[in-house]
Amino acid sequence: ETGVTQSPTHLIKTRGQQVTLRCSSQSGHNTVSWYQQALGQGPQFIFQYYREEENGRGNFPPRFSGLQFPNYSSELNVNALELDDSALYLCASSLVGTSGTDTQYFGPGTRLTVL
Amino acid sequence: GNSVTQMEGPVTLSEEAFLTINCTYTATGYPSLFWYVQYPGEGLQLLLKATKADDKGSNKGFEATYRKETTSFHLEKGSVQVSDSAVYFCALNRGSTLGRLYFGRGTQLTVWP
After folding, report:
1. Residue B101: which of B7, B5, B2 has the closest Cα?
2. Residue B64 gets which letter from DSSP?
């Protein structure tokens, strides 16, 4: 079974720039969720994609957007970067079935630094 | 609303000591409960889970029991090892098709030889 992978591992951007982070979900999973983990904090839910549609969103502004592709991989895009966007971005994949969402499995994360 | 409260860290123990990390939750409906572990510089790994009241999740010597009456899911291990040093996160999922996880702030555990 292939685990969740993310790219790139690290990224440095300047304020105002745009960034795209990528995630490949675990084999057999159909749902991808994105989380932001600031230093010393627990992960915060950004949004979830299911069947290529956004299936729920946390308290993040519209400049955070995403995509899910037919192979269930996903992208997270952040426009107009701010210093507070510096964080570890985690992708999690899971299988949604008739009984709800199964366990989410996380990738290693992308460390974004905004200068 | 939905939230998770974990005991504040850091927790420092000697090898072979007994570990308890407290976790309480507030949730609507019947959530599933999880413990995730994060080793330095890495993502989150699922440690254990429980999906209904009185269930006990266990893995690698760690255990946690879903207590609906006290809304708790405390993590325990009888004898910790240096390799258990990590940050531990308690989380809940309301179990709907929106699999949003609500996390606690994490508890840093350091085990000394």
Report:
1. B2
2. E
pLDDT tens for each residue of B46-87: 999 998 899 999 999 999 999 999 999 999 999 999 999 999
| Residue of A35, A96, A103 with shortest CB distance to B46 | A103
CA A12 to chain centre: 17
Q: Compare CB distances from A104 to B101, B102, B106 and report the shortest one's residue.
A: B101
CA distance B20 to B42: 23
Task: Determine the Cα angle at A34 with ends A58 and A87, to 5°.
Answer: 90
- pLDDT tens track for A14-41: 999 999 999 999 888 888 999 999 998 9
Compute how many other C-beta atoms are within 10 angstroms of the C-beta atom of residue A33.
30
Q: Is B25 on the interface with A (CB under 8 A)?
A: no
Between CA A25 and CA A64 the distance in angstroms is 20
